[in-house]
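Quick review question:
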Protein backbone atom coordinates (compact mmCIF):
# COMPACT_ATOMS: atom_id res chain seq x y z
CA UNK A 1 0.00 0.00 0.00
CA UNK A 2 1.66 3.14 -1.13
CA UNK A 3 1.69 6.05 -3.51
CA UNK A 4 0.64 4.00 -6.52
CA UNK A 5 -2.30 2.29 -4.83
CA UNK A 6 -5.54 3.80 -6.12
CA UNK A 7 -7.58 2.36 -3.24
CA UNK A 8 -5.55 3.79 -0.35
CA UNK A 9 -5.82 7.26 1.13
CA UNK A 10 -2.16 7.94 0.37
CA UNK A 11 -2.60 6.88 -3.25
CA UNK A 12 -5.63 9.10 -3.68
CA UNK A 13 -3.75 12.07 -2.22
CA UNK A 14 -0.92 11.52 -4.74
CA UNK A 15 -3.37 11.11 -7.64
CA UNK A 16 -5.41 14.12 -6.51
CA UNK A 17 -8.72 12.27 -6.50
CA UNK A 18 -11.43 11.93 -3.90
CA UNK A 19 -13.10 8.61 -3.34
CA UNK A 20 -14.44 6.09 -0.86
CA UNK A 21 -11.26 5.97 1.20
CA UNK A 22 -10.60 9.73 1.08
CA UNK A 23 -13.51 11.88 2.16
CA UNK A 24 -13.79 15.58 1.56
CA UNK A 25 -14.23 17.85 4.53
CA UNK A 26 -17.86 18.74 5.15
CA UNK A 27 -18.82 22.24 4.12
CA UNK A 28 -19.31 24.39 7.17
CA UNK A 29 -22.14 26.89 6.99
CA UNK A 30 -20.74 30.25 5.98
CA UNK A 31 -21.59 33.30 8.03
CA UNK A 32 -22.66 36.16 5.82
CA UNK A 33 -23.31 39.72 6.85
CA UNK A 34 -26.93 40.73 6.60
CA UNK A 35 -27.26 43.77 4.40
CA UNK A 36 -30.37 45.80 4.94
CA UNK A 37 -31.94 46.93 1.73
CA UNK A 38 -32.40 50.64 1.32
CA UNK A 39 -36.00 51.73 1.41
CA UNK A 40 -37.25 52.27 -2.09
CA UNK A 41 -39.58 55.20 -2.40
CA UNK A 42 -42.26 54.63 -5.02
CA UNK A 43 -41.82 56.97 -7.94
CA UNK A 44 -44.72 59.03 -9.18
CA UNK A 45 -46.57 56.45 -11.22
CA UNK A 46 -48.57 57.30 -14.29
CA UNK A 47 -52.29 56.69 -13.98
CA UNK A 48 -53.35 53.34 -15.34
CA UNK A 49 -55.45 53.63 -18.45
CA UNK A 50 -58.49 51.42 -18.66
CA UNK A 51 -59.26 49.74 -21.95
CA UNK A 52 -62.54 50.37 -23.70
CA UNK A 53 -64.83 47.32 -23.91
CA UNK A 54 -64.47 45.30 -27.12
CA UNK A 55 -67.05 45.89 -29.79
CA UNK A 56 -68.80 42.81 -31.14
CA UNK A 57 -68.00 41.85 -34.72
CA UNK A 58 -70.57 42.43 -37.40
CA UNK A 59 -70.90 38.69 -38.00
CA UNK A 60 -71.73 38.05 -34.32
CA UNK A 61 -74.46 40.68 -34.06
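Suggested answer, residue by residue:
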Amino acid sequence: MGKGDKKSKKGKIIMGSYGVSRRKKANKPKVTAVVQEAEVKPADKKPVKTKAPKKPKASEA
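Why it works: The CA atoms of residues 54 and 60 lie 13 Å apart. The chain has one helix and no strands.
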